[in-house]
Amino acid sequence: LQRRLKRYKPVRASARAAKQKLKAQEQTEDELVKLLSQMKLILQGTHDTESSPEQVAQLVNSMIQEDLLYLLAHSIRLLPFESRKDCQSVFSYTFRFKPTHSLSPEPPALTHVVHRRPEVIVELCRGYGYQESAMPCGVVLRELLKQHEDVAAIILHDESREKERAISVDKIDPGQGPLQSGDGVFWKFFPWIDRGAFEELLTRHKALVAIYLERNFDLFFSRYNSVLVQSSSYVTKRQSIKLLGEILLDRANYSIMTQYVESGEHLKTCMTLLKDDRKMVQYEGFHVFKVFVANPHKSPPVQRILVNNRERLLRFLPTFLEDRTEDEQFTDEKSFLIRQIESMGPLPP
Question: How far apart are CA 331 and CA 311, in angstroms?
Fold first, then answer.
């Protein structure tokens, strides 16, 4: 499998190659399809036959020793559709498998990847950039993020380029070290918010992410607002605003929330969302807007914007999404915000 993956290039209908070369490529593809299918059967068994722990352990050890996990992660986008699905299954079962009577609490393949071959994780992230491999890579990454916090740490802090060594988890100190440049693998996730792993990454390991966002606050929210919140895509815009509200209202992110709601520019962006043509964008924007208004320690820029727009807000809010009559929590929160805006004093001198 290792040799075939290294020399495999998919055959294109327009390829100007000799018939012999095309035939060799097709033969290699057929062999890869069969081998991946066989690996999946060894790992998960069939409806009639359970997998053999001894055979699975042998296969997993071989994959580790021959560096097949990296090769599969690097090549998955090139494989035929069914083989990409088999590859996803191979990754999932391999990263969950623990040998019988193992003394380690973690699956050996997961330990190997986290501590000795983090390039596998980075390659799976890069697979998100290709339509062919986005779904299988996303499924595997979400499973890994649920299993191990160090996977999240590697994704957040790695800034390696292709074919370079990825960051070692032993060298990651979330509270120290240089600030992020914005060129690492994590920052490539922003356009992929609708593919799942981005949300899992930012909400699963709360303490780790809170430190990361606090240290890289300006870069993160500048990128988040420009790429996501102000996106022309309805799906991207709605999901990013919803996720932003979840991040700000999470107790683990209290210091991030207080810093975010001090910004008058962030408030302006949020108030623009309230006037969006799409009701669900308005609704998600409301849940961010309420954090600014409910904050008892408003910054002068935020106070100035709210006081200067008080009359317009008091005319606008009573009829804002008034058809949500069955949503009692929304109605109560809207009434609370109206009272808060009404009771705001004059601007500080």
Answer: 20
